[in-house]
Amino acid sequence: MKGEYMKLRVKVLFLLIILCLCVSSIAYSQNKYRLKPDAAGKNCLNCHDNFKSVLKKQYLHTPVKTGQCTGCHDPHAASHGKLLSEDTNKICIKCHEAVMPKNARSTHRVAMEGNCVKCHDPHASDHKNVLVKAGNALCLDCHKKMGDGLAKIKFRHSPVDKGCTNCHDAHASTKSDHLLKNNLTALCVGCHRPDRPNFLKAHMNYPVANSRCSSCHNPHGSNTPGIFFDTVHSPVSKKMCSQCHEAPTTPNPFQIKRAGLDLCRGCHNNTVSEALNKNKVHWPLVDKVGCLNCHEPHASSHKNLVMGDSGTLCGKCHSDTMSIQKKLLEREKKEAAALPKGQVIKGALTHNPINEGNCDACHSPHASDNTLLMKQQSMVELCGTCHDWLKHTSHPMGEKVTDSRNKNLKVDCLSCHRSHGTGYRYLIPFPTQTDLCVQCHKQFRR
Amino acid sequence: MALSLRVLFIITVLSYPLLGLAAESLRLRHVVSVYADEKGAGLRHPEGVACNDKSLLLVGDTGNGRLVRFTFQEGNLKGGTEIRIPQLSYPIRVQVNSKGEIFALDGKTRRIVRLASDGNFKGYVTAEGAPPSSMVPKSFKIDRDDAIYILDVLSARVLLLNADGKFQKQIDFPKEYGFIADLAVDLKGSVILIDSVKGRAFSAAKNATSFSPLGGSLKEHLSFPASLTTDIRGTIFITDENGGTIGVLSQDGSFLGKQLSMGWNEGLLYYPSQVCVNEKGETFIADRGNSRVQVFISVK
């Protein structure tokens, strides 16, 4: 009996020892380096004395507030600047993953790139959400063009003054393009009730509750009452919707009365006839969509109701030309930046009209009698509208000078240059001028 | 059974590199360039070219507002007779049918004219009976049975007409197309479209009622595909207008490579337009920017 009691005591003792070992090892693992109680943050202030003033700010980043400097910084060494435990563009998302939803329809580029510090102070700020600036000033720091525009316009949409985040999400939107918090129409009718008599009257009783408001109105504001885009199609400004659409009382009130070009021809007959009598028509003009491939039917912020500057607009279809130009422009800037101060590289890689979104400097957008919808038959004359070629070269050119490579070609500017860029300076199609010249002057080939 | 499966497996494995080799080894070799008619009058920005198995080479000499007829036989170019009619001032696409009738699309009036083999005007192709009958043809093709296929950009459809020009059926353009620039019809009767903007090909088998994508995006290979044709094997040749090259696709739409490149010298292209391949594999390209037509043969 006594023997069994002894055995039980030994077993209990053994279990107690094991239990003690477990508890002590857990305790050891939790503070194996025997860290002082405030090692995670508060102790940092012993050296980083200046940081105390930061802590006095109104809004503190949670790890700062809770004294967890080690939430972001490694106290000993790190592979990233400022002893950060992760790359600056990746560290925030570790905690704030929900900021960028996976099913986003539009994303803010800075947020997407993890450049959070562009808007937020990682430690503290006097502005809500630890933003580096308050209100619209923060957004307009980058969106300067928008800021400049807003400063000049007569009629500002009041929510713009209340803050960009009134309509836009700062990080990403799962519901709409342009970071809008909801689809555009839903956003608008949230304030502008479409069933109100004034609203109905202003819209000529057309049931616009589900229409795209921005086809007429500039959501930020404009110089036109009713914040219409600055260029308004005459029938719209005269409230003559039924000139193009069926009557508002019909089953399909938005149905247009004729398709494509035929509808526009009713008023713009001269323009249309002139285009259609040319040798070459720009094919989208005569397709199913017609004029509306390039022009807004109601209002636009651009002249002639076009959908954008011609670079953007033409780039919708001619993306190959635009992407080459974009790449060359980036290269041009890079190479210029790499040069010592005051030094310049002669000869452009890009053609200015394209950079400026001015394709119609050379091409007729509707139709032309010339190939590639060129504005003039003679390339020498066309280029001569900007370039004083007589000062540029004494090379014989023109209708009387035959290209030695091909008896059907005359020597003109495009004999040596390609206006959309080639990757070589002076827009020549060969690496050096010698390579170019010996194409015709073969006797000088080495 | 097991043995036959093994054999099948080995054949399949072996055929992959062979098929690839066949595709890779297709090369276009320059034979001759056409610069002028029989009287020495030079071509000017020709956009149209048609050929057949009877050695005919028909050039749509767009800038001069005329057609020029040649024969190309055993590497020799002959003829150069001008066909000029008032109904055709700006020919941008040309075709011939089995009877030798000539069809040309006028870029200015956007109408297809039909000429007798001697070049006399016979009338317009009107797509009689088509719903709606109004159309804007961007391009057209004629198959072996003389059926006429019209790319109607106004109604976003391909119209199929019989040899007399009477409406047979239509196939709507595929959904979410960018801009359909040209069509081709292969020997099986499949219609193939090329989308310049989206950089994609689409096809509809002979009895299909809709188009479906053919192969993947061509954006990384071609800048602005603008015209296409097929050879007797069903290989697809696409002219890349801005890239100055010819893209080659297999029947299933796989990209097989590019032929030729941009330039002014013979064998190079500058803003090429229509392309035609005859049964012998002789390839005729309207080299618009160089104001000539170039003739190539396929070599392996």
What brief labels describe this structure?
heterodimer, A: 446 residues, mainly alpha, two-stranded antiparallel sheet, two-stranded antiparallel ribbon, 19 helices, 12 strands, 32% helix, extended, B: 300 residues, mainly beta, four-stranded antiparallel sheet, 1 helix, 24 strands, 44% strand
Verbal overview:
The complex is a heterodimer of chains A (446) and B (300). With 446 residues, chain A is mainly alpha-helical. Chain A has helices at 2-30, 44-47, 51-54, 62-65, 109-112, 135-142, 144-152, 158-162, 184-191, 197-202, 234-237, 260-265, 269-276, 310-315, 319-337, 352-355, 379-384, 389-392, 433-437; strands at 59-60, 106-107, 124-125, 155-156, 172-173, 221-222, 231-232, 280-281, 299-300, 367-368, 398-402, 410-411. Helix content of chain A is 32%, strand content 6%. In chain A, the strands form six sheets. In chain A, strands 1-3 form a two-stranded antiparallel ribbon. In chain A, strands 2-5 form a two-stranded antiparallel sheet. Chain B is mainly beta and 300 residues long. Helices cover 8% and strands 44% of the residues of chain B. In chain B, the strands form six sheets. Chain B has a four-stranded antiparallel β-sheet, with no helix packed on it. Chain B starts with a helix and ends with a strand. The model of chain B is unreliable at 13-23 (pLDDT under 50). The chains are: A mainly alpha (446), B mainly beta (300). Chains A and B meet through strand 8 and helix 15 of A and loops of B.
